[in-house]
Amino acid sequence: MKQKLFDKFAELFGTPDGAHFYFSPGRVNLIGEHTDYNGGHVFPCALTMGTYGAARKRDDRMIHFYSMNLDRFGVVEASLDDLTNKNEYNWANYPLGVVWAFAEKGYNLDTGFDMVIWGNIPNGSGLSSSASLEVLTGVILTDLYGITDLSMTDLALIGQYSENNFNGCNCGIMDQFAVAMGKKDNAIFLDTNTMKYEYAPIHLEDAKIVITNSKVKHSLVDSAYNDRRQECTDALAALKTKLDINALGDLTPDEFEANKDLITDPVQLKRAKHAVYENQRTIDAVAALRDGDINKFGQLMNQSHISLRDDYEVSCEEIDILVDLAWKIPGVIGSRITGGGFGGCTVSIVKNDAVDTFINDIGKTYKEKVGHEAEFYTVDIGDGASRID
Ligand code: ADP
Ligand code: MG
């Protein structure tokens, strides 16, 4: 990969001399969905799929971005003297947003840079190619400009800040955190209320993590995401009239049941129920994993899907087809929607000897029912973003 990127870099910017090589992963969330902006727990892991970058400082104030995935945009040119989101920058608004966020936090770059990227995360499928690109940019900036007082957690927060405020997507912290802090063969148990986290080794000796891409993305995804956030905020406000809590993630299911009548709106009630129970499921799932009880982990994944489908209402027909088919296959330990919803991917834990059947049977039936192919990735858990060379 490095050679391919450096060849392109040389073609565009003269020589690759002095450029460095970086990698930033995508992520999949195993359980704990739509809890990260509710002060709950999440349990994502970084993937070995990700975004690669080559970058080098320039002598002037220009910034040049090029994506080998999106050649049609050519070299996108921006200036340090005009850090604003522009439609014509298209995808480059993600890395430019990180430059802007650095400046907002007091890290003003003196000169610009050239950056070429290529990634193998399917875009817009819930595997966080945007967070991957943001954290990649953060790592590049700290490395090129010798910024030593920003931790990887800071880079995650800066990535989220830029996605929220430069690119208008109100995402929680999970994606950037997983991408920045990922560790090979481990998932990250993160409490988004306190930002405390622990690594949990994933030793699936006789099973694999299989991601299934529905290859659909329904257009309501962004607006529905913001609606869900608002519904949870309103439910929390109703609970706060009596309870001293900061977030839905502060409540156990029992506490929620004892106080849920404070929420009079039935839709808000369902959303809050999901947030509270999903948080508990995530805590229970990590405990099950530590006990070596992978079957319980799988059952909690399945319950997570049902809650996201019925109470949080972020699934869709295509995803439900994939999950229903998965649940019927012997050797499937658990299967659920992953990511924001309304399309994208499912994540399943599948016994090694059932993986071929999983891919063949689901692939065939999905095509018959939906009319196009699903894509399957048998994934490995990799490290977080870093400079490689
Ligand atoms: P997700 O994060 O789930 O993959 P998003 O819609 O949040 O989906 O982010 C996808 C967007 O991120 C793409 O449309 C593109 O603008 C940008 N992006 C991600 N990876 C790349 C890449 N390799 N090259 C160019 N743009 C990319
Ligand atoms: Mg994204």
TrEMBL record:
Signal peptide extent: none
Domain GHMP kinase N-terminal: residue ranges: 93-183
Domain GHMP kinase C-terminal: 286-367
Gene Ontology biological-process entries: galactose metabolic process
InterPro entries documented for this protein: Galactokinase, Galactokinase_bac, Galactokinase_CS, GalKase_N, GHMP_kinase_C_dom, GHMP_kinase_C_sf, GHMP_kinase_N_dom, GHMP_knse_ATP-bd_CS
Annotated residues for binding of ATP: S67, G124, S125, G126, L127, S128, S129, S130
A GO molecular-function annotation: magnesium ion binding
Top class in the EC scheme: transferase
Galactokinase N-terminal domain residues: 8-57
Cellular-component GO terms for this entry: cytosol
Pfam families in the cross-refs: GalKase_gal_bdg, GHMP_kinases_C, GHMP_kinases_N
UniProt keyword annotations, A-Z: ATP-binding, Carbohydrate metabolism, Cytoplasm, Galactose metabolism, Kinase, Magnesium, Metal-binding, Nucleotide-binding, Transferase
Binding site for Mg(2+): S130, E163
Compartment(s): Cytoplasm
Active site annotation, chain numbering: D175
Role played: Catalyzes the transfer of the gamma-phosphate of ATP to D-galactose to form alpha-D-galactose-1-phosphate (Gal-1-P).
Name of the molecule in the record: Galactokinase
Organism name: Mediterraneibacter catenae
Gene encoding the protein: galK
